[in-house]
Amino acid sequence: MSLSIFWDNSNIWLVGKKVSQFKEPGDEFAFRIHFANLFDFVLNGRTCNYSYVAGSIPPDTDQLWQRFKNLNISVYKQERGAQSGCEVAIDEIIQLEMANRVLDVPPGKMVLLTGDGSGYSDGRGFIKQLERAKNHKWEIEVVSWDAGCNRYLRAFAQDNGTYRSLEPVYYNVTFINNKRWVKSSSI
Residues 157, 90, 8, CA angle at the centre, nearest 5°? Predict the structure, then answer.
């Protein structure tokens, strides 16, 4: 079965940073995600056929995005809005990639890393895309921080596929820059 992974980097990083405020108070500004370990956790021993990450810049550090590329993950970067400073269309570009995958590839398993469940009541958003994937015979899995996962997204994943929490592997997939390294590279 093919495995397709879609990663909302902004959501995973921002919520992870909030989780770090509780787990390691005072170190949230040095909070980092160990992408390779998080990717290994998501893979869970499976082989990935397609992976895609999207996020906003800043950070516009080539080093950050290069880490994703080193893992053979397709990267999409979008600048923040000039006036608002807010993220622009990151969720939508991920959702478009999800829809394209559903239409272009025989059904497999779709894994989504996010906690964002907004837009469903309006017929859009990540839950709607997962619903479409499910209707096209895809298996679904959501990987998210419990602390920031939309309750409807979590319920949808639990009722229609798999939900995997990141809190139990916090110390394995995160580090505090110049202070704490990841606890273990094997998850």
Answer: 40
